[in-house]
């Protein structure tokens, strides 16, 4: 059993491109984690050729609707992208 030190939080895996997009969109890891824990709706993303299927989780964070796209059946959740709904 591996015990994680308390000063090193578990880091969720992200698509390499998503961190750049998150910064441009003003989306923090805290916002993503909040939505993934407290989402109010989820549905499959539209299928795309040559891309693994994803699920879109939508939740409210600081009064705004945030959509987080996660690769289906990934564990831990592999975040493919995130965007504000408005």
Report Rg.
Answer: 13 Å
Query: What is the mean pLDDT?
Result: 87
Count of individual beta strands: 4
Residue ranges: pLDDT <50 for 5 or more in a row? Answer: 1-10
- Outline: globular
The percentage helix is 10-25%
Q: Please give the order of strands in the largest beta sheet.
A: 1-2-3-4
- The secondary-structure class comes to alpha+beta
Q: Helix tally?
A: 2
H/E series, N to C? HHEEEE
Strand fraction band? Answer: 25-35%
Terminal CA distance: 43 Å
Sheet with the most strands?
4 strands, antiparallel
Provide an overview of this structure.
The protein has 86 residues and is α+β, with helices and mostly antiparallel strands. It has two helices and four strands. Strands 1-2-3-4 form a four-stranded antiparallel sheet. A hairpin with a 7-residue loop joins strand 3 (64-71) and strand 4. The longest helix has 10 residues, at 29-38. The chain is globular.
């Amino acid at each position: 059993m591996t015990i994680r030190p308390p000063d090193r939080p578990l880091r969720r895996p992200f698509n390499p491109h998503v961190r750049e997009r998150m910064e441009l969109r003003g989306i923090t890891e805290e916002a993503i984690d909040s939505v993934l824990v407290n989402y109010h709706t989820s549905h499959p993303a539209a299928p795309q050729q040559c891309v693994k299927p994803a699920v879109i989780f939508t939740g409210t964070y600081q009064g705004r609707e945030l959509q987080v796209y996660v690769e289906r059946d990934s564990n831990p959740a592999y975040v493919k992208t995130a965007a504000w709904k408005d």
